Each structure stands twice: as structure tokens, then as C-alpha cells.
Amino acid sequence: MNGEKFRALLTEWERAYGEYGARIGCSVLEPSGRVIWEQDNHKWFVPASNQKLWTTGVALDRLGPTFQWETHFSWEEEACWIRGGGDPGFDLVQSAAVAEVMKRAGLKRIRRFYIDCSINPDPVWGPGWMWDDLDEGFTAPVSSLVMEGNRIRFFAEPGGDSPIWKWEPAQADVQVNADVTWDGDDPTDIVVRRKKHRNHFFLQGTLSPQEPEVEGAVASAPRFFVEMFSHSCREAGIQVDRFPLIDFAPYRSGEAVWIQPSQPLATLLTRVNGDSDNLTAEILLRTLGRDDTGTFSQERGLELLSRYWSEQGVKPPSRQVDGSGLSSHNAATPYALATWMNRMLARPHRQVWIDSLARYGISGTLKDRPLPQVPLTIAAKTGSLTGVRTLTGYLLQSGLPVLIFSLLINGLAEDEHGELLQDRFIDLLCRWR
To answer: Which CATH class is domain 3-66+266-430?
Structure first.
């Protein structure tokens, strides 16, 4: 790779956008491991969601692509017990399927729910997460019970003087107060706030007709689960009290039992590496930390990651405090990330790993980026925090990796400038020969 062209690209970008204070680290490798270009590739950077690559890589190796979480249900007339198993993909489709099973088994009424979330005793947020982000959808509470990502999605149909809001799940008991205006020139910029113990949201800012959606985190994951599951039961023909009693108590088997498995890890991995779902990444980390009783632990998960890298002879991240990269306390070097990506190519499930990544101009968090005008594919993981934009992945030719790269940008004055540099870097990378 022509280093002079890369340096010229950086100089032009700095001058064009005034980003003289940004720190940029880069490492480009061949699959043989030979470094063909680097800049500050051994210095520490905040990796943002590129941190997920450490978590998901070890999870895929240790848990395997067929791994599934389980949600346990049992019931008898007028009572239902639910034990959360950490399924990050549980949704209204699965909820409806379980309700139909219960109806066919003869259940007619539910007056009380007994909820067991003891498998995940850790806090619902990760260490170092920003307190003023905790109502936003990307910081949905981490729980052993998940329903629709523990998020409410708000959206508005373009048109009219001010947005008219709807939300999904539409059945959710939600209140919205909004001070939002349309802005066709800039990206959506909305702050989401929520009352402490209620799904009463406050939206403030500007909404782009091209991005008419925002997300908020639910106030209580277990109570939201019961609310949505109650709706599914009513739809199936089971009578559920309007305000059923909810007790947090140990799970026990009633007269009938059903175990609902999650989708396999290979499928759910695209939620993390493709769509950058923080909740799934945090559940993966805690799942890796399970003890003999099956209880999750973030601390034990981090300890397992450290042992794994030591046993495998892998250079670990400089500092890891969570599974998703939401904390600015994480640190990694471009070289460590690039060599980790190269190491994953030698693991048994390499194709599952590659398939889990977003594709430039095609899918995931990269679907709206400019598609390279060459017969090459960019499979990569993005990372975004305020002032941080990161991109780590592969350049694929006929489905095979020909280059591995990690581009870490910290200290941006304007976040969108980082994405512009990523696009120009990818264009240069595609013409590296």
C-alpha cells in the first residue's frame, strides 16, 4: 500500500474539515500477518463498538455457533412462572408462539406472574456508561428477560408542520411528550429522556425525513416483558387481568412447562457485529462468565476473556471494561484489533464470523455508506461514540479476505467528518494494488 497516498489523504482531510486535533491510528495487514501500512498502530485509542469484536470472537469460539439461550415458562390455572435465560432476541413473535402453546394446553386465565431474573444479578448497565445516555435505546437495560430489545422505537411519517409520533411495539403502554421539528438539511438529532420508573418519554430536537426514527430504553425490562407477554396471551384467547400481580420469586414448575430456545448464536451474532446491538454484546459477555449454577457475571466474563487470550497467545485489548464498547474506559490499538481479526480467520467458524459483519453499502451499520466501485466487498465493524469513529474489518475478493484493516479515529470535532475519512480510506484501500 502506498503510504504517501495515505498521508496525503489525511493531510487533505485535516485541511478540508479543520480536524487538526483528531488522533488517527491505522493498521493494514495481509492475511500472512505482514504489515503493509501503519500509523500509530501501537498507541491506545478508544475503540467504541469495535470492542464488540473481542467479545464476539471469544463467544463464537467458546460457545459455538449453535449455542442457544432458554426462557422457561410454567403455569397452572391463574398463575404463570417465567425464568429469564438471557435470550437477547426474544420478541413478540416468540411471545405469541409461547402463548399459543399455553392456550392449547388448556390455560384459561392468568391473574399473577412470578418472575425469576436471578440468572443475571449484575447491574442493568455497564461500568463507565454515560448517565445521560441511559434513557436512549442504545443503552437498553441488560436483563435476563429481554423483549423486543428492551426498547421502544418511535417513528413519524414525513409531512405536516410537526412530527406525529407512533411507536413499536404498538401495544406498549407509552406516553410521549415531544418538542421536535423537521429538518431536511441535517441528520436526526434528538435527545431521549424518560421518567425514572415509567415508559413516559420526552423527545427533543430535530428530525430528518430521511431518518424519522429514534429509540428509547424501557424503564423496567421484567415488567415490560410481562406487559407484552400478557398482550400475547390475550391475543391467544387467555384471559389476563388488566393489571396482573407481579411477584419477583424463584421459578418453580407448575402443572405444565415450556422451554423456549433462542435463535442460534450464529444468527444472533449479526445483531452485534452487523447492527452493533449493545444489549446482545453485554449478554454475551455475562454468558461467558457463567458459573456452575448458570448464573451470569460480567466480572467472570472479563476474567475468562483474559485467560483465553493468554492461553491462545493473543495480544489482548489494552483495557476492557465492558462487552459492547459503550464505555470510554476501553482502550485498544489498531494493530491488536487487526491481528485479532486475522487470528479469527484461522478459527473453525471463520465463515460465520465473516458473515456476521456489516457490508459497505449493503447491510448493517454500513448499509447507507457509498458502495465501492470495484469488484470487492468490505466486511467490517463500525464504532461510534461522541468524538470517536472506528472501523475494523476485511477487504474481500470473491469472498476471501485479501486485506485486514483497523482505522481508529479519536478526538473528532464533528463526528460525521470521521465517517467521511472512513469512506475515503476504504476507497484508497480498494485501489491498494
So the answer is: alpha beta
